[in-house]
Every structure is written in structure tokens, then in C-alpha cells.
Amino acid sequence: MSSIQTHYSLGGEPFAASSTSQELISRFSALFGGFAAAREDNAFQIGLHYGDVPEPPGEWPLVFEGDLPIEGYCRLYQQGDKSLLQFPLRGGLVIDRGAMRAELTLAPDRIDAMGGTLGMSLIMGVADAYDQALVHAAALTLPGDGRMVLVHAPSGLGKTTLSLALLKGGYGLASDDAAFIKLGKGITAFGLPRDLKVHRKTAEMMPWVESCLVGEWNREEERRLPRDNLSVLGRFEPPVPRPVAGLCRLSRHNGPSDIRELGQADLLSSLAGDNLRVGRGGLPPRERRQFALFARLVGAVPIFELRMGSDLGRIPALLDRHLS
């Protein structure tokens, strides 16, 4: 059977996916189609397969072993620029950074595994090969400005709620949950384009969102907000690198929303704790490169803490004043 290939661009850097399975290509396109682009030479190559979960060749060191929420037991092996992330019952991902290549092999009938840690590790591997890093943060553009503000917080603290409040206040939404940072003449960022998951409590606080939600409430009390529906609410930004105007840490506050100063060491520690996995010998090589990029980001842009109260409507103006 002939191979099918699709082409993408991550912040201006090319990557391509190929497979003999239309099902795998379609699933990959559903996840990362927001990066679709014309074919370019010298792209990072991704192979997608069904088959036996790969085993590490030779004596690759085991750098991480443990259970992940929902997905269960996994192992991470590392040998120089090569790594293997292995979920014994789901699939395995081999990344060769030096060769600019990755192979994702899923166990039969486990196409769902592409949408979890394996798929995210794959796109993180592409980013790492181009000296970029994925950060768990919302990314929005300032009204009439085009610069990007990044909002860092662990899951469940309100990044989606804040993103929707800022969207209504004139900001452009690049992502409510994940962004890439890239070094060049300065530090730029762009969002990971994907649908939003809106919690029932957020929808109750923002009734104007309700008409854009699709599907039923799931077990986590969330419904999907397709990014195609965002045009009704505001501006959805394509994944184009933009200068970073500021980086904030989001926290909850019982009083009025406000902005506080934040030290570089405090923010860098918070970013590392939320984004990096520590292995048996400390940080694996990719995580060390991520940490170095985080340190460059924290040292190069304005940083602060945004304490979010229930007065969501005044936050856009509050942020405008701080970043102007």
C-alpha cells in the first residue's frame, strides 16, 4: 500500500507525517491540522504505524518509569539524541533529534492513544528539534497590538475562563492551554490550535458562551467549544510567532482582580514544576533544553502575577494598563 503524506509548519519550521493508514493520517490531521502548510524540503519526518509497541534497542538507559493519570504505566528511555516513550498497552514513540525523525507506533485498536501523551510528546519532539519549547500556558494577543501575552497556570486554575473573558474584551485567542516559545531576534510565541473544553461553571459565569458549545457535558463537567465557533465570540489567532509582551502566573483571588509583582526565580520554579518531568538522573536532555528556554523567556519579558477574582469583566482593561 502506498504511503500518504501531509505537511505542516511549526512556527515557520517544516514537518511532515506519513503513513500507509488513512485512519492514522486523518487522526493526526485532526490533532495538528491547524499547522497545515505547503510541502518544504528538509522537514522533520514523522512515521505513523500500527504494530507491536517498540522496545529499546541495546542498553538504552531508563530515565523515567511510573504511572500517568488516566493513561497508566509508561517508561522513558534516552540514549544521546534518541528517546523512546513506551506505554506497554498503548504504543511507543521513538524520536531521533539528530536525524530529524520520529516514529509513532500504536497498538492495534488504540488510535485514541495519539490524542494523549504520545501525541503531545511527538509535537514537543518536533519543537525541540527546532530549538522551540512547549509551555503549559494560555496565549492571547493584545487588542490592536499583535504582541502576545502568556498566562501560566496548572490545569484547573482558570486559564480557559480567563481566556474567554479576555476574548470578549478584545484580545485575540491563540490558545487557552498550550503555546510554543521560540528564540530568534527576540522571543516569540504562538498557540497550539485546538478546540476548547469549557467547564459547566465557566459556562454559567459566561452565558454568552453557551450557544457556541457542542456535544453533551462529559464526566469532567465539560463541553467542547470548537475553534471554528470562536469567530462568533471574538478573534482566533493563527499559529504565527509573535513578540511576547509579557508572561504572567494566574492565581485565584477572593477579592477584586489585581496584578502583583513576581520574582524571576519564583516564576521559573513554577514553570518548571508544571512543565518538566524529572527522571532518575535529574532532568532528561529535552527537559534541560526546555528549562533553558524558560529561563531565557523569564529573563527577557515583563513578568507578574494576575490574581483573578469574580470580576472577570474588568480584567481586560486591567491587563491593558499593565502592558501598555
The overall pLDDT, averaged over residues, is 93
Structural class, by secondary structure, is alpha+beta
Q: What summary fits the major beta sheet? A: 10 strands, mixed
- Unreliable spans are none
User: Could you give the count of β-strands?
Assistant: 20
Name given to the CATH architecture of the largest domain: 3-Layer(aba) Sandwich
User: Regarding CATH, which class of the largest domain?
Assistant: Alpha Beta
Backbone CA Rg: 20 Å
Query: DSSP strand (E) fraction?
Result: 25-35%
Q: Ends: how far apart?
A: 57 Å
Number of discrete helical segments: 7
Query: H/E series, N to C?
Result: EEHEEEEEEHEEEHEEEEHEEEEHHEH
> What name does the CATH topology of the largest domain carry?
Rossmann fold
Estimate the helix proportion, in percent.
Answer: 10-25%
Q: What is the count of distinct domains?
A: 2
Shape: globular
